[in-house]
Amino acid sequence: MSSQKTPKRYGWNTPVTAVGPQGGAMLRNIKNITSDPLTYLESTWFEFGDVVQFPIPKPATYLISSPEGAREVLVNQHNETSKRTLQYNNLSLVTGEGLLTADTQAWRPRRRMLQPAFHKEMIALSAHHIEAGLAKLDANWAELTTEGPAIIDIDHAMMSLALEITCGALFGVDVDDDVDEITSATLTALHGVVARARNPIALPLFFPTPANLKMRRAIRRLDKAVDAILVSRESNKLPDQAPIRDMLDVLLDPDLETPLTKQQIRDEIATFIVAGHETVASALTWAWHLLVTNPNELQKLKQDPSRAQLVFDESLRMYPPAWVITRRTLSDITIDEKLIPANSLVIVSPWLVHRNPKAWENPNEFMPDRFQSGVPQLGYIPFGAGARLCIGKEMARLEGSQILAHIATHWNIEAIHNSPVPIDASVTLRPTAGMPVRISRLLD
Ligand code: HEM
Prior knowledge:
CATH 1.10.630.10, 12 strands
């Protein structure tokens, strides 16, 4: 812990209620904060501990890294917090008021309405779409390896696979020809979201700055994808009384008490495209990174594919795709005995919580077996926690484990170098320059 003296108040009369860096030190670090936020967060946590207040006058801004503190913010104080934060306000430029960004009042009935699309039986149905996606991947990789081993970008492969599965399982459409177009539109739009969050003087989206124009173009491409999904369902409508097939049927259900408007339907489809594929792809990409750099674990997985769930859960611990979760406090709350005043921005970073020795032994070691006795209640939040827990959690875990098991038992995958892979901490964690690996067919 630092023994530096902090002032009693920052500007705007904001009280100082927890230790943290001084304004000068933070300004000197501004380049690192934007270029390598994970390292900055980690060093701030090492220096100041589990509750840190940044020297920001408005809103008062806190970083919470203890397992109990994370639970307090996300679970116990759920009713005292809101999602009206810079992170979510910017994301809603892309997803509108969909389930992920909606604030409590609009969110509650929508969650109730969409939950049936994620019941056990519906999730089991997605196994079929996962198999179909994997069959395509096998065919594609077989072509690439006819002459022998090939080098591919596993990150790109996981993005395409996850998008196909999301669109198949949730909307019943085959996006085959448009995969690259939709994934690149999603990435560009999300990069725009992050760039805005990191730029204190970002102009509203209607100003035609080059960055805004690029983001608007990406949003238009996503809108086109949403329209194509709706057109495809129009020609494939459910007969009356037929059981619900997927999430799109729930969204379009004319018997809803209050049927959704066109805009609300668009926002939910965009939300699920964005929330449902890049996260899974990021998790899988880092799982492959961990496996190829820990060949003994890869070998164990090949011999016993039922270990895939342990591997996926542990990868999510070490590389949680959603590496920050933010909330605004609606009233004064107390976290780890520190007062967090109303209207503060609270940042909970799964990246830090998952490395906290209060919850994890040898946190920097890749040890899938630590999940043998189940997923711990405290200190593990890759999918968030509490009422706003990820609605796609079980679908993602099924997808992740099925894909890892299949690829490990059908293909050889090797690292092509041993250097560290730089991380681009954008909306999710991504390798800065893709993740090239060598693949070859595993002879039976
Ligand atoms: C490994 C993959 C995934 C990760 C790491 C992940 C992570 C998260 C996290 C951390 C949250 C909570 C955010 C918060 O509390 O502010 C969340 C919410 C959400 N996720 Fe996921 N997610 C994943 C996969 C999916 C999938 C597959 C879908 C859809 C099929 C999905 C849809 C959503 C939605 C709609 C929400 C908002 C839920 C609500 O507020 O009611 N996610 N996700």
